[in-house]
Amino acid sequence: MADEVPNLAESKLTALVVDDNYVNQSMHHKLLDRLGIENDVVCNGQEAVDVHCSGRNYDLILMDMDMPVMNGIQATKRLREMGIESKIAGVTTRAKEEEMQEFMEAGLNDFQEKPLTISKLLSILHKLDFYVHT
Amino acid sequence: MQRQVALIKQSLFDQGYLDEQFVELEELQDDANPNFVEEVATLYFKDSARLISNIEQALERGSFDFNRLDNYMHQFKGSSTSIGASKVKTECTMFREYCRVGNAEVFSLFRTCDECRCLRTFKQLKKEHATLRKKLEQYFQASK
């Protein structure tokens, strides 16, 4: 498996991990690192909004749904209202149909069920046109 | 020694303590981060100890706040799923189900039954969590 992992460092992609869970933060950060994607980590939706207000921008945002202070749905809506056009992928544990609908309608480009794996992340990148399978 | 490590690891899977998500975690370990799996496991046990303490405090208060308990358990389940802690994840799922049923329960007698189920499940969860911790510590020690 390790030999098949593509290195996307040349594409100079950047990503933001938005998750309140420390284990998930560590894993998602490492997943992105492994693919050569420079990334930052924040703990909730409000911090995701704040980091964009400070002028940072990312190609991809991995947005958890359930977070304190500001959840993923609220944060996604807020970022879109701010004119942020980054690709946003919702990353959730199994949620109800209506919750998923609400999350998508907030402005997601894709979603995946947790836990994220390399193959799920590649699927996101492929769907959002950041990566082409060879 | 390597055979011993392999045997310990295999038994963790055979006995259902770990699932394939742990393999995904191991795939992320490389020369740049040779102790990544152990670091994540350490983070998990530190975080889950905090959650266990929060849940214990919530249960000691006497009146069951199912919403609060479910919220803690949601976090616990999330971490357990990410690390591949299969048995712990199962207990979290059961606990959340009892919270969901208990929250909807109108009759106090049945609600008390749900509270008992929550307590029993939490006891089992702590047992599985402690066993996993011990076994993973053995595994990481043997891997050095």
From TrEMBL, chain A:
Domain Response regulatory: 14-129
Domain of life: Eukaryota
Modified residues (4-aspartylphosphate): D64
InterPro entries attached to this UniProt entry: CheY-like_superfamily (IPR011006), Sig_transdc_resp-reg_receiver (IPR001789), ST_Response_Regulator (IPR052048)
Record keywords, A-Z: Phosphoprotein
Phosphoprotein found in the keyword field: yes
SMART domains: REC
PROSITE patterns: RESPONSE_REGULATORY (PS50110)
Pfam families, A to Z: Response_reg (PF00072)
GO BP term, pick one: phosphorelay signal transduction system
Protein's name according to its UniProt entry: Response regulatory domain-containing protein
Organism: Brassica carinata
UniProtKB/TrEMBL annotation, chain B:
One cellular-component annotation, GO: cytosol
Keywords: Acetylation, Cytokinin signaling pathway, Cytoplasm, Nucleus, Phosphoprotein, Two-component regulatory system
Domain HPt: 33-139
Modified residues (Phosphohistidine): H74
SUPFAM superfamilies given in the database record: Histidine-containing phosphotransfer domain, HPT domain
A Gene Ontology biological process term: cytokinin-activated signaling pathway
Gene3D superfamilies found in the cross-reference section: HPT domain
Record-linked InterPro entries: AHP1-5/YPD1, HPT_dom_sf, Sig_transdc_His_kin_Hpt_dom
Molecular-function GO terms, alphabetical: histidine phosphotransfer kinase activity; protein histidine kinase binding
Principal localisation: cytoplasm
Subcellular location: Cytoplasm, Cytosol; Nucleus
Its biological purpose: Functions as a two-component phosphorelay mediators between cytokinin sensor histidine kinases and response regulators (B-type ARRs). Plays an important role in propagating cytokinin signal transduction.
Domain notes: Histidine-containing phosphotransfer domain (HPt) contains an active histidine that mediates the phosphotransfer.
Protein's UniProt name: Histidine-containing phosphotransfer protein
Organism from which the protein derives: Brassica carinata
